[in-house]
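Recall the central idea of this unit: under ordinary conditions, the amino acid sequence of a chain determines the structure it adopts. In this exercise we apply that idea directly, starting from the sequence alone.
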Amino acid sequence: MRQYFESMDALGKPLAPAELAEMAANREQVAAVLKELDAEVSRVKNAGLPAAKIHERGEMTVWDRIEYLVDPGSFCPLHTLYNPRQNEEGTTGVVDGLARIGGKWCVVIGFDNKVMAGAWVAGQAENQLRVTDLAKRLRVPLVWLVNCSGVKLTEQDEVYPDRRGNGTTFFRHAELEKLGVPILAGIYGTNPAGGGYQSISPTILFAHKNANMAVGGGGIVSGMSPRGGFDEAGAEQIIAAARRFKEVPPGSASVHHDVTGFFRAVFDTETEVLDALKRCMAQMPAYHADFFRVAAPAEPKYPLADLASIVPMNQKAVYSIEDVLARLVDGSEHLEFRPGFGPEVYTGLVKVDGYLVGVIGNRQGLLGMSYPEYTTDYIGVGGRLYRQGLIKMNEFVTQCGRDRVPVIWFQDTTGIDVGDTAEKAELLGLGQSLIYSIEQTGVPMMLVVLRKGSAAAHYVMGGPTANNHNAFTLGTPATEIYVMHGETAAVASFSRRLVKEKEAGRPLGPVIEQMNALARQYQEEAKPTYCAIRGFVDEVVRFEELRRYMVGFAGAAYQNPASICPQHHMLLPRLIRSEIVKGLDRPKKVR
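Accordingly, the structure predicted from this sequence is:
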């Protein structure tokens, strides 16, 4: 299959000096958004106790542990700003992301021991479930750095019960193990109650000498016999019991290594625990990269730094999706699928770190006077989905599933065409058909909301709602996510009210002010920082970081897949190049 993969078609073009100069203001806008994001990331990293205080105790912070554990430059953070319950800690209390350990991809998550000694806090359960889902979709090991003091007792209703409470993670761990996805744990500090199950539910446990895990901690054990109230005598008993359990907490390393044998090994230093995790990762199932690579890895021909000069912050300005991809994929090469059909979307095969990946993205700009083909009442514009584009995406996704090719989506969409003409063209059914096509593929997907993610198109184009397939969603400095543009929402919400006020002879000013307020609310709630905090995206990244996440996604997706398609059995490249078969020196027509 070398004739298909080693030398693909050229993609994109270099930026001219005039284009770079024209986008100077755009780059300044991008920098302003990044400054705000950097401040938020710094706030999260500095939450809780100062790192110096942890170091004074002779302990490493979770950030120290991750830095020591993972291969340099491989960590792709996720959920850094995620705080869906808007808790007072300003963080979910865990740090996670995709990373390599000893050359093998995994999902890493650790409790932030600076924040209430790694307690369960509001919103953490949702974060943990996203992480277990990520390991499940990519079929890569989940590596835990456990340092969990259990429930934040003053807010137990926010973290303990519910169908998706913190305990759900233990069932998700069991599910991963049932599917053959191992969970490794390095265990530190005191881990009572829920922290004990965070420790015991993984597959292989390594512990620091000072670690413990228990059904109940000292504070719980010393108060297990309430009398319906408290008095001074009872308080004295609690004090005595608390002192005893502080000296020898339940579930120490001596119990769970020497007696139960739950701990595979116990180590004197924190770094020795991390070294044990590295050795264990070396034993994890993984295909060699050459098994799936279709060509040698290659950098794009054009610089990543160009992206801030290509993608406009002005949501109405146009750009070339091909020029974006040319800065992200190997050799700036591709094989485009059905280029003359459904011009509002790009579909094609590319290489990322030598691996074959399917790419789907919205095109921008006018699409010609005769498109869409089902009407002459208006002309098509990029960003909107029409009949042909929906059909093309259905076909491409289905073939990617057949050939076991993971998919990366690039969204910049205003939605699906509307009106009776669009209904007669079956767009509602074709949108749902695309959802069905995605669901039946069985391949992992990654989404980049390059700019706009709106209306039902946000769902059907590999959105985070594709729970069984979307591994993670990235935002950029230009990302906005909303059901419709704020001004459109204001019209939809208040148009009838305007008519009513006009017919009644009342002033329109109060309604207009409400319309402007709604538009401003949409604008604020669509910003990248807000999207990251609420979890609409799993991380907002710089344009220059997009390829690094794509490399991580591709590497993880091909590391240990549940099923494979031999390269010489693939149909997609043959469908794309169906007119010719390349010989040694020149194309020959196929009879």
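The mean pLDDT is 93.
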